[in-house]
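The material for today's practical consists of a large collection of protein records. A record pairs a protein's sequence with a compact description of its fold. Instead of coordinates, the fold is spelled out as a row of discrete tokens. We will come back to this pairing of sequence and fold again and again. Here is such a record, shown just as it appears in the course material.
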Amino acid sequence: MKLKMAENSLFAVLLRSPWWYSVMIVLGMAIAARALLPEPYVVVGIVGTAPFWVIAAMSAWRQWKLPNPARVSDALACAGNMSWVDFSKTLEKAFVAQGYTVTRLSGPAADLQLDKDGAVTLVSCKRWKASNHGVEALRALQQAQQAQGVQQARYISLASVTDNARRFAQDNGIVLIAAAELGPLLVQVL
């Protein structure tokens, strides 16, 4: 049984927040313990902040590994100005840097095929500059995924997709890679 943290639990929210939020909670709880608890229980109150120290450390570690937001923004701007040939080469380099073997495809639905440890992923990225991303392109990718018997599919775009497209992707196991995920991927190679 795999345990999963609730998306909006306090610890999940703190993991997505700056690390120092957790440290501020620890300090607040320690001050409150010192002010409100009888002397013999102050240590117990302070030790009760340990989970928040762990969350602060985990959050700091994650944030330390993230690329600089200015570099991410520059990478996205650069991607928006690239031609299809340059963008596909850049994506190919980024996926190779992550350990994938990349094969270019010529079909209308998928542009790249990624292989890693026996897992195959189709990637649709030719419409990365489009301002509207609806269900049609995702449906074509999903049909190509089923036709080839591929385990995973990814759809890459600079702009966000429509709500219907997001639901379709979620229902069909297609991973959407928009600006927030694409920027850190491109920073590796730009």
